[in-house]
Amino acid sequence: MISPQILQNLKQAKVMVIGDMIADQFVSGIPTRISREAPVLILEHEETKILAGGAANTIANLVDMGVKAYAVGVVGNDATGKGLRSLLEDKGVCTEGLIVHPERPTITKTRVWAGEPGSIKQQVVRIDQGIKTEIEPGIAEQLLVYVRETIGEIDAVLFSDYGYGLFPATLAKALVDEANRRGIVSAADSRYDLPRFSGATVATPNKPESEALTGRRLVTDRDAEMIAQSLQRQLQLQAAVVTRGEDGMTIAQSDDLVYHIPAFNRSEVYDVTGAGDTVIAGLTAGLAAGASIREAALLANIAASIVIRRIGTVTVKFDELQRAVEEYNRSQSKDPVITS
Q: Are the beta carbons of 322 and 8 closer than 8 angstroms?
């Protein structure tokens, strides 16, 4: 069961998100004819819009859950960077921690969609732009100084690493150490190098990431238990939360408690886009609001069950999360199964 007080505490919680801020740019057009230059469509431009992606999408999830968010990262001195900053500021996000880098373009994933007006458009191509080399020591120091000056205001830190060089090993360690020194919970989500965040409070590797980190296949619940326990010890976490898609999640805590939380609404999965961002956002929001790891994991699972029923990258609003939690609390049949 999730305490109703945890939900109310979300509205006072403050979370700092340090990560790769990505601009998801969508360009739509109406097909008019085939080009003479190559066998491709010529599109008449219809609309260009920017949505939050990567760490910025995690922030959008937090804000819509009622949490006050602080964005920390790097954007370019370009139109997409300005658009992304404006988008976050319009949602009430503190963007003082976003450093503008004149030689590092904003990470942008541009999707081109084609279709007649009023029809369902089809994606034609995706273009990714972003530098993956590590940020310079001077930029890393600026980020660390900002975090040290601001961390006293917040309740939790979330690291969102998409592999675009924001987290040199020395910076990642310094950030985790700073959170631990201040007694602030931290959550790590890293696509390629989770060990850099060893010592964080929790981490949320998915199935492929967990298999790669441990060298073990994850097929059964028992496999998941062993992998979660191995990761918890290897990464010196208070809890390893292994996300398993339709099989839910398996959590191993530092007190040797291991349990499974089944996936909710398994029969209504339409799109898993952005579900990982929702999980880490829900987990961190719960911890920032004073929830136990078990309560926070339940909250994250419930939030994810909402977004997977929709198409595209979406977020969970506070009111719908509250309704889903109340529905869950009325039905205790899906409580975690304690296995050891």
A: no
Residues 105 and 128: their CA atoms lie apart, in Å, by 11
Type and span of the H or E element at 47: strand 41-54
- CATH class of the structural domain 4-333: alpha beta
3-state secondary structure 219-276: CCHHHHHHHHHHHHHHCCCCEEEEECHHHCEEEEECCCCEEEECCCCHHHCCCCCCHH
Q: What is the DSSP string of 278-299?
A: HHHHHHHHHHHTT--HHHHHHH
Active site residues: 277
Q: How far apart are CA 240 and CA 187, in angstroms?
A: 10
**Distances from the Cα of 92 to the Cα of 63, 65, 220, angstroms:** 8, 13, 43
232-258: pLDDT as tens digits = 999 999 999 999 988 999 999 999 999
Other Cβ atoms within 10 Å of 140 Cβ, number: 20
| Per-residue pLDDT tens over the stretch 86-145 | 999 999 999 999 999 999 999 999 999 999 988 889 999 999 999 999 999 999 999 999
- In whole angstroms, what is the distance from residue 214 CA to residue 223 CA? 11
